[in-house]
Amino acid sequence: MTTGTEQLDELAINTIRTLSMDAVEKAKSGHPGAPMALAPVAYLLYTRVMKHNPANADWFDRDRFVLSAGHASMLLYSSLYLSGYGLELDDLERFRQLGSPLAGHPERGHAAGIEATTGPLGQGIAMAVGLALAERMLAARFNRDGHELIDHRTFTIASDGDVQEGVASEACSLAGHLGLGKLVAFYDNNHIQLAGETSMAFSEDVGKRFEAYGWHVQDLGEDIALSRMELAIAGAAEVSDRPSLIILRTHIGQGSPNKQDTEKAHGSPLGEDEVRLTKEAYGWDPDAQFLVPDEVLAHFKETAGERGARAEAEWNERAEAYRSAHPDLWEELALVIEGRLPGGWDADRPEFRPVDGRVATRKASQKVIQWAASRVPHLVSGSADLEPSTLTFIDDGGSVAKGDYSGRNVHYGVREHGMGAIVNGLCLHGFKAFGSTFFTFSDYMKGAIRLAGLMHLPSIFVFTHDSIGLGEDGPTHQPIEQLAHLRAMPNLYMVRPAGGNETALAWRFAIEQTSTPVAFALSRQGLPVWNPSAVPDDAIHRGAYVLRYSYREGDPDLILIGTGSEVHVCTAAADLLEADGIATRVVSAPCLERFAEQDEEYRDSVLPPHIRARVSVEAAATFGWSAWTTDDGDQVGMTSFGASGTQKDLYEHFGFTPDNVAARGRAVLERLGARA
Ligand SMILES: Cc1ncc(C[n+]2csc(CCOP(=O)(O)OP(=O)(O)O)c2C)c(N)n1
Ligand SMILES: [Mg+2]
User: Fold this and answer.
1) Domain that holds residue 436
2) pLDDT in tens, 559-586
3) Which ligand has its closest atom nearest to the C-alpha of 35?
4) Same domain, 392 and 294
5) Same structural domain for residues 22 and 100?
6) CB of 71 closer than 6 A to ligand 1?
């Protein structure tokens, strides 16, 4: 016999299912199968398990939910709509249409309650690890006896594709190592993926694998009754020193007479007839579309809505008590909650002087990091086992370890993919987090960097050993095309500072960002330092500036444009050219994307349009540079992979010498002169 509560549960679950089916049907595109199968999980989380307040999606101590299987977006959207996050039925009806807040895959910032942008499989669960780590790190910093202000869980739903992806393995391995006990992942074990049965390519025992990572694993098999899942979630909560995986043997497209348990339910509308048959199987009116029974809405309002509001109100009271007891700590926590920096934090930025001799920008960065860490308490570091080389360790910051999350340095192990996503998770939770590795291995992090850009998340990615200038490690380690890759990415600032003072400004620039990630390319090799007064305060904000005007007043004959470690090659080449009477301007261009954003007047002041004789110098692929050199100019760059050798030999071999740059400049002038 079913009780009234059970009937209401079923009605609510079927509402999520049918809303999802109807939205996909109306859009003529989308993924109905997973939402149909996972509706009970979402229903349980949003109405009974999660601590969240739909009226204030940003409440800081809310439980986080990340739908790693982003293709099942309608599961999230239906749940957010019913919970009262401010979506209208009309929004569901415009699922996947231009201008709708409900994009094909969940996009952070498009609608309240979307914690993270997901869709590239594996990234969501890996970001969930970052969120769960952030919670532990915040709790370690801010909770005090009698004041457990930070105390929430992170839930995620991962599909077969999610657990097949390497990024998930990396992040979950680290989550197990660090014992992130408040992370709960559901694995949607439905035996189906896009192209057919998972058995085509996947036969490992996922439970055993996660156990080996150090997770607490519960396999519920087919028994995914709400009460059973609730018990499992309670069981997960009891295991406080290990993350939990709850495996559910679900049936994709559940209830669809002809498509359940097949890939046909994965990524296309069920079709009008099948929708009718499925609704009939649910005991639903087959003629009704986007039907939301009043009692279902009322139920969500009572549970998610009213309980959530009470929970937040109660937390706000506790926060007030905390604030009185620990005003300084509260102020520090408020920086994280509000995404602020301490007032005047950048007042005494380190400066570098020519007398310091040659300083690698990674080395300058090391000094700047120590300074920034002392000014910005929520700046946290990390590296994929390269901090002795990237020089990113916060000296007195301590390391994050299992059971002690008070440190400021995360050891990611050699897991660049995971690091990228976890850095994003830390930033989603309000940390100013950065991760570091060699620039070539930015390739391994590209998925996460891209998501940071897409999410308008100011993650910081620190890449050192940024060119053939790294020398003897050879071509496997020498980035060539990475600058062009990352410069092509929307909403990312790729910064390659030329010396210590540009590096200090670059850090300030990155830390100040609120909606754009920043990637640094820093040199391994020592570089000369210019007098700080030659480097304007807005050098990075402007993206490019005139580092050295020609000796001769008026228009220069030639402009040399360099970045990072090649700027000093430009100044030395300019010396040669000027000695020959060729008036030469040197432009340092640490961030081409910023420069492109400047107004025309500024850009023209740096690169006067009528001065066509321009040569760019950068020890990397020249792709993209013609925009700045014009077709009349030339580009000194890399057209092949690098080679093993000393830095000096490589620079000579590949032409990054003052002599060669000067010769290329002269050739440009001759060509232009001949044409004139
Ligand atoms: C990194 C990445 N590769 C490929 C895809 C395209 N894609 C979307 S869902 C999917 C697999 C679907 O299988 P599963 O994860 O088991 O989801 P289910 O069909 O069970 O809902 C693929 C390959 C993707 N979204 N992300
Ligand atoms: Mg699947």
Assistant:
1) 354-527
2) 999 999 999 999 999 999 999 999 999 9
3) 1
4) no
5) yes
6) yes
Quick: pLDDT tens for 606-644: 999 999 999 999 999 999 999 999 999 999 999 999 999
Task: Return the ligand number nearest the Cα of 164.
Answer: 1
Which residue in the list 135, 274, 387, 416 is annotated as catalytic? 416
Q: Is residue 532 part of a domain?
A: no
Q: Ligand 1, residues 73, 107, 121: which to mutate, most atoms within 8 A of Cβ?
A: 121
CB of 45 within 6 A of ligand 1: the answer is: no
How many residues can be counted in the chain? Answer: 676
Catalytic, 115? Answer: no
What residue ranges in 163-252 does DSSP mark as E strands? 183-188, 192-193, 196-197, 216-219, 244-248
Same domain, yes or no: 522 and 546: no
Per-position DSSP letters for 258-271, written without gaps between them: TTTTSGGGTSS---
Whether residue 458 sits in one domain with residue 369: yes
Cα 441 to Cα 417, 453, 525: the distances in Å are 9, 18, 18
Q: Is the CB–ligand 1 distance for residue 193 below 6 Å?
A: yes
Please tell me if the CB atom of residue 450 comes closer than 6 angstroms to any atom of ligand 1: no
Question: Which ligand 1 atom minimizes the distance to the CA of 34?
Answer: 21
Residue 503 and residue 564 share a domain: no
pLDDT digits (tens, 9 = 90+) for 301-349: 999 999 999 999 999 999 999 999 999 999 999 999 999 999 999 999 9
Which residue has tokens 């997973």?
Answer: 34
Q: What's the mean per-residue pLDDT of the chain?
A: 97
Q: Map tokens 């919970």 to a residue.
A: 83
The domain boundary, picked from 309, 330, 346, lies at 309
- Whether residue 323 lies inside any domain: the answer is no
Burial class (CB in 10 A: 0-12, 13-18, 19+), 673: exposed
| C-beta of 499 in contact with ligand 1 (< 6 A) | no
pTM for the whole structure: 0.98
| Neighbour count for residue 341 (Cβ, 10 Å) | 18
Any domain includes 405:
yes
What CATH code is carried by the domain that includes residue 474?
3.40.50.970
Looking at the structure, tell me whether residues 9 and 95 fall in a common domain.
yes
In a domain? residue 265: yes
